[in-house]
Automatic annotation (TrEMBL):
GO terms for biological process: mitochondrial translational initiation. Residues 504-516 have a biased composition (Low complexity). This is Uncharacterized protein. It comes from the Eukaryota. Residues 465-517 are annotated as: Disordered. Signal peptide: none annotated.
Amino acid sequence: MSKSMNSPTARLLQSSRLFSLPRPLPQPALETATSTGVYRASDSATLPYPTYQAIASPASSRFRGDWGLKRALPAKSTRSSTPHIRVKAHDNFAHITDFESAADHTQTEAKWRQMGIPLVVRERKGYSNEATTTGSAYDDHIDNTDPEAVFSAQQNARPDNPGSVQWKRWKSDSPWLAGMQPGEFEIYVEKRLKSRQGEFQKFMIERLAQQRVRDEERRHRDLGQRRALSRSQRSTILQDVVTNYEAEMKRLRDDHTVQSLASELTSAICDFLGLTGVQDSTENQVNAKTERLKNTLANISSESNAPPSTHPAAGLSHIRTNAIMENHPFWGPQAQGSPVLARVVRPRHTAHGSEPRAKLGVGGVVANDDSTQTSAAWQDNRLKALDFENTPIEQFYENTQRMTEHIEVDLPGGNKVWVHPESATVDDQGRIQLKVRRGDSEAIAIARDDVEAIHEAKRAALRQAPSMPPARGTAANANYGYSLPDTRYGPPKSRVQGFDDMLSRSPRSSRSADASALDKIKDLAGGFGRK
């Protein structure tokens, strides 16, 4: 294995399945800071994302221990309901293949495929601490890696529409400058940037020429003249930019001294190097009057602008939105999606303290509960004893408030609740941030196939409801037809011409109208008596 393999046989082995596994990703940090400032880590905890590729084998080959590797694996070690392994080393000094089960991540991927949770872009917050509108991770302005498409979309964007969608690349070849150490940044400037001065000059000449062309075309449109410039005019502008290149660069550098990171030169450098968005927070932090505002600006400039380490969807789901309607085979279309049974990993109240929200385990991912409750209500709820022997276990899971308040030691299987997964995001460290809400009562009843309680509640509501008149057109409420007016509830018809028209008019508030109506009635009544 240590010899250099340059023979045809060695090259054949390098291109076979034995050597086709990708290199593992760097190990993620598992240490988390507690409320006391102490870092805790776990050797057996599931990693936030897989670092080794999981492989599987057909049942016929798995029975013989054939996994496509250098040597066969023992069937006793791979006999499982989820036969997926990850290989850490093909060979070692003891001539043993180092492998372990990969069911922790493969089962998570299978559960997410079953739940159908849409992946959206992470929420970015501005200086006002207000989250921007989120969209799908597969939108055209997000799911792209072509710098030319992004540049053309930005050039064609309407400047008078500040709410237009901004095109961005989720992956770029350039490093993240804010995450570099001082030594790494110096090496990057010395080895990567100094050799590209000529390329940058050509880029700036083309950029300045395009800007001059757009300005001239805009001026011609304002004057009502020809919209597009001719080829000779474009060549003249390009030659003028090449001649006055040093003066143009001096103007850009002077503007950069005043505008700092918001200058045109900064935008050109970011486009040339493919850098991620740079936000000017230095001046804002200096002018901040409170420590809280300084921390907010520091977080915006460091964490929120970090480039993503993976695709915004991370391959977990390919659904663009949760605006779908499930069609139950028996009950038909459902207003709510199918709920998921989540395990309460950490309730709100424990022996170590209290937290505003409970921690729920959904599909291999820990999420926060979307509801909180006061301590007084928790004390009242805690005094009620539960009968675990004579009551089905699934019925206790519907009491979401009690399940999330404290651990029920005597409950078989532990605390569980029904939730509806709404959406998820993948942060810059590759961790999944899941958003859930508590399950709907009718959706839970349909998932449990126990809808008798819903029918009984509806029947009780109908019995307590006030009596309503029967529908029109029925035997109890006969009518002349739906196309004819209902005259049974109107004033009775008289034999005096004009009297019915007078009574059918809407009442008026003016005294003159009432007096004229009274005179009309007396006149009609007097005429009828004389006849």
